[in-house]
Amino acid sequence: MNRIARKTKTRTTVLPIPMPGRLAVDYYDWDLRLGFSVPLIEVATGTLVTATGTITAVVRLSGGRAMVVLSTADGNSAHVALNADIVRMVTPALHYGNRLNVRGTVTRTTSVQPAGIAAVGVNVEIV
């Protein structure tokens, strides 16, 4: 695992390198009956997750869909696919800098591509 070492006066801390797919998400494991908060890359494909981040990019796609990049202050991010219905509901608020709370399933198209989220519901906080 790639890590960056940051030296302080008392100790050295190890931080993960910011990258797509490492946004912290919350999910519930029904087998263990426990909730978890982990990086997106550690969650199985098809799992229902929730995540919150700042919109750092919005790309409009065909058919009224959109792809949003959510990022956190630590630099980690995730690609979130929004279907046409969701885009119609939140278009006025899909702007750089707004916060987005998203609920959706984890997606992976190939093993080398970072995990993403296919949104089934969103809430935008206008900043």
Would you mind describing this structure in some detail?
The structure is a single chain. By secondary structure, the chain is mostly beta strands. Strands 5-6-7-9-8 form a five-stranded mixed β-barrel. A two-stranded antiparallel ribbon has the order 1-2. Strand 1 and strand 2 form a beta hairpin. The longest helix has 7 residues.
Output the structural class. mainly beta
Tally of helical runs: 1
Strand content: over 45%
Radius of gyration: 16 Å
Number of strands: 9
Give the low-pLDDT segments. none
**Biggest sheet architecture:** 5 strands, mixed, barrel
Give the ordered list of helices and strands. Answer: EEEEEEEHEE
Helical percent range?
Answer: under 10%
pLDDT averaged over residues: 87
Question: In which order are the strands of the major sheet placed?
Answer: 5-6-7-9-8
Give the termini separation.
Answer: 34 Å
Basic shape:
globular
Describe how the helices and strands are arranged.
Layout: E1 3-7, E2 12-16, E3 24-29, E4 34-39, E5 48-60, E6 66-71, E7 77-82, H1 84-90, E8 99-107, E9 116-125
